[in-house]
Amino acid sequence: MRDLCLMNGDAAFPSRLVCIPDPPVQLWVRGSPAHLPGFAQPSIAIVGSRSATRDGLDAARRIATGLARAGVVIVSGLARGIDAVAHQSAVDAGGCTVAVLGSGLLRMYPPEHGALADRMLESGAVISEYEPHTPPHPGLFPRRNRLVSGLADAVLVVEAPERSGALITAGAALDQGKDVFVVPGRVGGNRNRGGHLLIRDGARLVDSEEDLLLDMGWALAPGCDRPAGDESPETTEFTVDDVVRETGELPQMALARLLQEELAGDIRRIGSARFLRVRRRVLT
Questions:
Q1: Is the per-residue pLDDT at 280 higher than 60?
Q2: Omega before residue 110 within 30° of 0, cis
Q3: pTM for the full model?
């Protein structure tokens, strides 16, 4: 398949990347430019550790699969670990996925992901702002991360140490005014410290594709199964403020009670102060 070079200003140049700080001057594209997400199509960047644990890989696989089936474009960097699992899961689910390289398209890195990149072209694309023969270099990857976040509505970090390219992508997302989500991991060591620091600084904690779909306000694609826990037409979302208004409790008392209900499985947290109750019942 012939690679295309799109200049910023061309009609086919992705509109999402025109609006970011420091937009690319050109993009080399392998695959159809029509597969690059526009503003009307939901997309999520999934990034994380290259040396991820089994738990991290399982979480990335589960969430990427669910989002791809829901019609969300999966964006990542084709790196080993979380990136590769996110792309592979989207392909296996029959969804669209886009990879942004830190090298030229003719110097695929890592080279063992060439077959995965070829599979992605059926309904996705591989892109780079670097000339086709540009070799991979450590200094190029942090810069490409602004394009990973730039193509997405939000960034999901799955298992990232304190010094991680995933945190650079999260920082780029914040600079672009986008949401950052984190899948929490085990405490201790450095495998998840970067993600936990993001949560401490205000990133939203999620553990399923359902959390993301609800938080972003995305509807499922036609024909997709509804997420588990959303079968009932009586499903309702509410906030701590709603509970305070309804019961007259002090906010700290309402939060303490909601925590007990969350631990009991009666409600589910979908944001820092937002919850989902599957079946309506009166708060007493």
A1: no
A2: yes
A3: 0.77
